[in-house]
């Protein structure tokens, strides 16, 4: 294991990663459709997280689950699993500091460990940090052109904002490599694995720290087997 591991921030995320030998963060994007009720989605979320306890370092929750369950149930979920996972609120905040601050305070009260915000709007620097903060640098989808064209400025903004880490799409090899070089101390989260095209483990190969995976696990007929396969591919890359 890398000797500097213990000093890495955010501490809770890296401690869970070390304990479980996992760089996998689940995007828990379950939602209700015409045939499912919020309580069914809640039950499915609980059983999914129970079954994946040993394999995940973190869980990312955003609009699909929050709109389905409401924040009361989200708080319940966070309370149930707060010892087991690093919990990230992914609402990609991009408002004025006054509003972002209100959102961060709520996320913290709900029990999240971190939030994801955009960087392009500026103004993250002076927010009071009750939880960790990650900034979006490059997104994984092919149309994320404007972010890519402003990569250097977003990297600078990440430093100015003093975020704990950044999000760089797993599908964008050169940008992960460049982000790693420019921000050697920051934790890099990479979504876009499997369904969006990135091979499990590849983002770690390019210098990313954690891979965020949603549908390849949540929609799998055997989520545990799918998660295990991804974690094994990641361990394989890290052991090289
Ligand atoms: O494609 P998946 O189902 O594995 O889900 C990817 C998740 O990561 C999803 O929650 C989405 O909101 C998030 N995400 C990206 O896909 C790309 C980004 O650049 C940032 C976040």
Give the strand content. Answer: 15-25%
Could you tell me the radius of gyration in angstroms?
A: 17 Å
Low-confidence stretches: none
Q: Shape from CA axes?
A: globular
The total of helices stands at: 10
Oligomer: single chain
Decide which structural class fits the backbone. alpha/beta
Mean pLDDT: 96
In the sheet with the most strands, the strands line up as 1-2-3-4-5-6-7-8
Could you say which small molecules are bound to this protein?
ligand 3DU
Determine the N-to-C terminus distance.
12 Å
Strand runs, count: 8
Can you give me a brief rundown of this structure?
This protein has 240 residues and is an alpha/beta fold. Helices cover 45% and strands 18% of the residues. Helix 2 (38-51) packs across helix 3.
């Amino acid at each position: 294991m890398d000797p500097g591991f213990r000093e890495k921030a955010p501490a809770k995320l890296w401690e869970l990663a070390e304990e479980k030998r996992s760089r996998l963060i689940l995007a828990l994007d379950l939602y209700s459709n015409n045939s499912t009720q919020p309580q069914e989605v809640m039950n499915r979320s609980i059983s999914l997280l129970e079954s994946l306890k040993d394999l995940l370092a973190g869980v990312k929750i955003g609009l699909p689950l929050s709109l389905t369950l409401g924040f009361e149930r989200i708080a319940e979920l966070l309370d149930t699993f707060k010892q087991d996972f690093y919990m990230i609120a992914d609402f990609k905040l991009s408002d004025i500091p006054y509003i972002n601050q209100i959102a961060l305070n709520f996320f913290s009260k709900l029990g999240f460990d971190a939030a994801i915000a955009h960087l392009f709007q500026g103004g993250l620097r002076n927010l009071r940090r009750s939880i960790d903060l990650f900034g979006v640098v490059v997104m994984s989808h092919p149309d994320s052109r404007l972010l890519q064209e402003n990569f250097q400025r977003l990297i600078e903004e990440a430093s100015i904002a003093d975020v704990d880490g950044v999000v760089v799409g797993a599908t964008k090899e050169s940008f992960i490599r460049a982000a790693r070089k420019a921000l050697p101390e920051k934790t890099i989260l990479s979504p876009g694995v499997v369904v969006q095209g990135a091979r499990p483990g590849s983002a770690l190969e390019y210098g990313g720290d954690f891979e965020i995976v949603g549908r390849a696990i949540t929609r799998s007929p055997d989520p545990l087997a799918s998660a295990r396969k991804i974690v094994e591919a990641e361990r394989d890359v890290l052991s090289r």
